[in-house]
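QA checklist item 7 of 12: single-chain prediction sanity check.
[x] sequence parsed
[x] length recorded as 314
[x] structure emitted
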Amino acid sequence: MKSNNADVYLFGQVLGTHSFLLRDGFLKPDEYAEIKDQYFLPGGETGTAATVLDSLGVSVRMDGTWIGTEVAPMLKAFYAGKKVDLSSLHFMEDDAGVMDYVVIAGLVRSPMGRFQTLFASGKRWWNVPKEDDIAGCKVCAIDPFFMEESLLAADLCRKHKIPYVTIDSPHDSPLHKNAAVNVVSKECTGEHYKGMSAEEIMKLMQQETDGLTIITQGGGEMLYARKGEEIHHMQPFSVQVKSTLGAGDTFKAGCVYGLLRGLSDEELVRYASACSAIAISRFPLPLNPPRLDEVLALIQGVQGSRRSGECRGQ
């Protein structure tokens, strides 16, 4: 698409993901493993969110990671005909581009890449966000990984009064303080808040923002709250897991959708959880992203079961 007025602007990681779904359990040292399915598709927190939002009927413009010669043909072909605008991305002519490699077996996955080397290089391999892109949208999502550029995107959102969703931003981060929604994963709490309970972490997060904080815990219950509120709890949807790759990115996309549509906090968390549940029930996610009708059917089906006393979870 060529319009400057996409509903959503996404800034962050866009890359090519080589994914390998194993047939008989996860890798074991010195043992052979059979690959059941493998794909090379768009990935990264922003790339995956763009795919999901398009499937939900939302127009997207994304920016972030520089796109190399090996990733570009796949990316352009994948998004051809979709409501995802790639025109703000920078396409390199002398580098293969950023890729990762993910081995998956049900609940277990192991990503591999060269991100530590890239970040340690001291070179910037991502774009500077463009003010016109942000000013022209309704909702943004900002990955926190690109340092000054991520903070600039947040500042531009504040300047133009555009609400944004971020992920894994600690309580003392400017990204958290000014976010409309911050989704904090189990990996983030384990890294920054070792030894603290989810409730203790939430109390810290609540004090530093007027936005909504959501703490996810994998298959455990989610917590969500705003400043001055009691902490709310919600169980995730129960589904048969095929692959957890992209679950958190899909949850973020669900939060963006909820913010765009003006959902209440409870509705937004439930909607994001339903998106994520559908995502983990299939592989590969980019070829089978959750659709709006599927998300609503899952929510309505579970709520109906709760009313009849047949279901435990959200």
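[x] summary fact logged: Residues 265-280 form the longest helix (16 residues).
[ ] second reviewer sign-off
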